[in-house]
Write a structure and sequence with these properties.
The chain is an alpha+beta fold. Helices cover 27% and strands 27% of the residues. The protein has helices at residues 13-20, 50-66, 94-100, 163-176, 193-198, 206-212, and strands spanning 71-73, 83-88, 105-117, 122-128, 135-142, 144-150, 156-162, 185-192. The longest helix has 17 residues, at 50-66.
Length: 219
């Protein structure tokens, strides 16, 4: 419905977001192949009024939880703004928590995030993306990153993330730059969700690297 649209003009960003939020439920997630995932995003600079921004962030949270996922970036719901949300209750076995550093990450809205590596260490694990449903691949990422961002109220964030939360932060920030995790993945590791569940559920991807023939960092 184009109820907010003026004659002959494209709907503004505010109008498009208002329209997206009318259902009140989880938003449709855009799949790979849609150019919106590749165009990059505008820095957030008040394009949405505070109340609308709060509603948009809430809709991202609801959509992420319903998927379920541990992060969601605005372009994944078709909005080209530099905004993402993350949250990971990390319901994983102890061996996985230790190997992957998958510790619980409370809900956070990331506005205008950017990251840089802290130190040279990299870690490689299977990851997936709500915009590439049904598949996972191994991605080597910085073990620790410094994230500079704002929260949804405009307060400055400058924080170091490590382990799995660092991976989530990198994955979501990359979305805002028009990147998908597959751009950084070991493509020979590409595995269906079923294959990961049946064969590659080990805490680390060493057996997958051996069997599928791809490199892990540091060897
Ligand atoms: Zn993703």
């Amino acid at each position: 419905m184009a109820t907010f649209r003026e004659h002959g003009s494209r709907p503004s960003l505010t109008e498009r977001v208002e329209e997206l939020l009318t259902t009140g439920g989880p938003l449709p997630i855009v799949a790979a192949g849609d150019p919106v995932l590749r165009r990059g995003t505008e820095p957030f600079d008040g394009q949405l009024a505070p109340a609308l921004l709060a509603r948009f962030v809430e809709a991202l949270r609801v959509t992420m939880r319903a998927a379920p996922g541990v992060g969601l970036a605005a372009p994944q719901v078709g909005v080209e703004l530099r905004i993402a949300v993350i949250e990971d209750p990390a319901p994983v076995p102890e061996a996985v928590r230790l190997a992957r550093g998958r510790v619980p990450q409370p809900f956070r809205a990331l506005v205008n995030p950017s990251y840089e590596p802290v130190g040279p260490a990299r870690a490689a694990f299977f990851e997936g993306c709500l915009s590439v449903p049904g598949w996972q691949a191994v991605v080597a990422r910085h073990t620790e990153v410094r994230l500079v961002a704002e929260d949804e109220r405009g307060r400055a964030v400058d924080e170091v993330f490590s382990g799995w939360p660092a991976r989530i932060v990198q994955h979501e920030t990359d979305h805002l730059d028009g990147m998908l995790y597959l751009d950084r993945a070991e493509l020979r590791s590409l595995s269906s969700g079923e294959a990961v569940a049946e064969r590659w559920a080990q805490p680390t991807p060493e057996a997958a690297a051996e069997a599928l023939g791809f490199e892990l960092p540091g060897r």
